[in-house]
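sorry for the late reply, my laptop died twice this morning and i had to redo everyting from scratch. anyway the thing you sent over, i finally got around to it. pasting the sequence first so we're on the same page, its 145 residues, then the predicted structure underneath. double check i copied it right bc i was rushing
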Amino acid sequence: MMKGTSAMTTSGSTDEQSASRLIDVKIRELAGWRGETLARLRTLIRQAVPDVTEEWKWRGVPVWSHGGIICTGETYRSAVKMTFARGASLEDPAGLFNASLEGNTRRAIDFHEGDEIDEEALKALVRAAAALNASAGPRKPSRGT
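ok and here's the structure:
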């Protein structure tokens, strides 16, 4: 699978392994604080939902799914953005969401160089997103565009 392609995945599939490798490469290419932050977020997502599916969509965006998209991991010059697909429907008692607050569906967390990650609160948010997806019942497969 080449960079910039989409990966439709099922847990444990070759596509998921390809997506995971592409995420590995992205983390290595980023290096510095952005690579470290994305790698840490990935680890926390995997700890929160051990059977999470990794996907590679939209020309190079890591996506974590479990019964639907949980979140994405986008990287910019000054931030690593973790966007929760259904974040507006999630409780956020720790006040982690700090971006995309105006929308009706998504919510995001922007991490900047030197930011501390509230790991337990973030894992709770990831678990809540996976539970919300599970409560919605069967979903149509996402389109890897």
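The beta strands are 53-57, 61-65, 69-75, 80-84, 107-111.
thats about all i looked at so far, will dig more tmrw
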